[in-house]
Amino acid sequence: MTDIHDTLALTRVFIDTLNRRDRAGTKALLAANVADRVLLEDRIARGPEAVVEEIWSYRNSFPDVQINPTDGFASGDRATVQFTAAATYEPYTYGPRAKHVVRHECVIVTARAGKITEISTYVDWLRPIGVVAKHRSTNYQSNVVPHELLAEKAHRERQSAAIERMVL
Questions:
Q1: Which residue from 90, 71, 91 is spatially nearest to 81, judged by alpha carbons?
Q2: What is the pLDDT of residues 46-82, one digit of tens each?
Q3: Rg from Cα positions in the chain
Q4: What does the alpha-carbon distance between residue 146 and residue 110 come to, in Å, rounded to a whole number?
Q5: How far apart are the first and last CA of the chain?
Q6: Which residues contact 151 (CB under 8 A, 6 or more apart)?
Q7: Between 114 and 4, residue with greater pLDDT
Q8: What is the pLDDT of residue 35?
Q9: Structure pTM?
Q10: How many CB atoms lie within 10 A of CB 20?
Q11: Which of 13, 30, 79, 109 could form a disulfide with 74 if both were Cys (CB 3.0 to 4.6 A apart)?
């Protein structure tokens, strides 16, 4: 199962291993030189062990996450899959502050010889957990406290810097 040469099929198998919480299965799909990039956050993990640790760090924050592909296409050695990730968010325990969130994400996977060599993920982490203020029409409406507005501004600045680096 780890020697899949259709990049879209390989990406879907990768997502299936994540949904099954199968660390070994996930790692088996990764090439020795794999890189996992979360571009808008300017983060990168290199090598199968680091990539699996990065993914499971996220999974540990959202242990009940379920990834559901909504669209996908492939061209050559690349596949793009759009998906929703539904999970319970509560930073420490599933206590009274727990909140069900759904994020819309996109991943671009590059593969060679049936193994994933690069994962590039585009995600907005802050809006689904209520940190980013909501804007409607010309009226600014928010229940966000000032320090959260600063987090939103810092997040946008990191996104802009990451986009500028990609363009240059």
A1: 71
A2: 999 999 998 888 787 778 889 999 999 999 999 999 9
A3: 17
A4: 40
A5: 38
A6: 126, 131
A7: 114
A8: 95
A9: 0.69
A10: 10
A11: 79
For 18, 38, 53, 74, the CA distances from 109, given in Å and listed in that order, are: 15, 12, 18, 9
Q: What is the DSSP letter of 1?
A: -
What does the buried/exposed string (b/e) look like for 92-125 if buried means 16 or more CB atoms within 10 Å of the residue's CB?
A: eeeeeeeeebebebebbbbbeeebbbbbbbbbeb
Question: Exposed, middle or buried: residue 62 (CB in 10 Å: 0-12, 13-18, 19+)?
Answer: middle
In three state form, how does the secondary structure of 67-89 look? EEEEEEEEECCEEEEEEEEEEEE
Tokens of 148: 């959260």
pLDDT over 70 at 126, yes or no: no
- For residue range 73-87, list pLDDT tens digits in order: 999 999 999 998 888
